[in-house]
Amino acid sequence: MHLHRLERVWLTFGAAILVLFLATITTAAVVEGFVPPSHVQSIDPAKVRVTPPFDKPGLHRLASGSYEAYYVAAIFSFSPHELVVPLGSHVTFYVTSTDVVHGFSVPETGINTMVTPGWVTTVSYTFRKRGRFLLVCNEYCGIGHQTMADAIDVR
Ligand SMILES: [Cu+2]
User: Fold this and answer.
1) How far, in Å, is the centroid of ligand 1 from the Cα of 135?
2) Cα 91 to averaged position of ligand 1 atoms, centre (Å)
3) 39 has a pLDDT exceeding 80
4) Distances (CA, A) of 62 to 10, 18, 42, 92, 125
């Protein structure tokens, strides 16, 4: 089979990029110990509602301007339904699911992560803009997926 010189160059470039990406991912996982944000802390999905702190989902104050927010995702809503966050706060979200894979996305902020049953997903954000932010599930989770939306109110 004859390949044009430019095709060969292009294929070599594509293969080199692929090898570079795989080497980067492998190095990050094996040498640096990087894991997906959801695979750090495990939790029994059947006992989420009775496992502290997920038995009392909501905003928990750590210090001035620093909060933790515990969320439970279940078909087809988040708990809490609405979170009120003081303006300027740094919030670390801990999210888990009781049933299937969900998404946890606040489009205006860049918060966008997957929520896997059995694991606690962690993501942080500093709310520097006042307003009502839409929180949506962006992983198809069943027939009511399109209704899985709540709000984060930054005041
Ligand atoms: Cu969904």
Assistant:
1) 11
2) 23
3) no
4) 53, 43, 22, 10, 15
Number of domains in the chain: 2
Same domain assignment for residues 25 and 56: no
pLDDT digits (tens, 9 = 90+) for 107-150: 999 999 999 999 999 999 999 999 999 999 999 999 999 999 99
Residue 17's domain spans which residues? 1-35
Half-sphere exposure of 11 (CA within 13 A, CB side): 6
116 alpha carbon – ligand 1 mean position (Å):
12
The Å distance, Cα 114 to ligand 1 centre, comes to 10
What pTM value is reported for the model? 0.78
> Cα torsion for 48, 49, 54, 58, to the nearest 10°?
140
What is the spatial order of strands in the sheet that 102-106 belongs to? 82-85, 149-154, 131-136, 102-106, 111-115
Q: Find the 141 Cα to ligand 1 centroid distance in Å.
A: 4
Q: How far is the CA of 96 from the centre of ligand 1 (A)?
A: 13
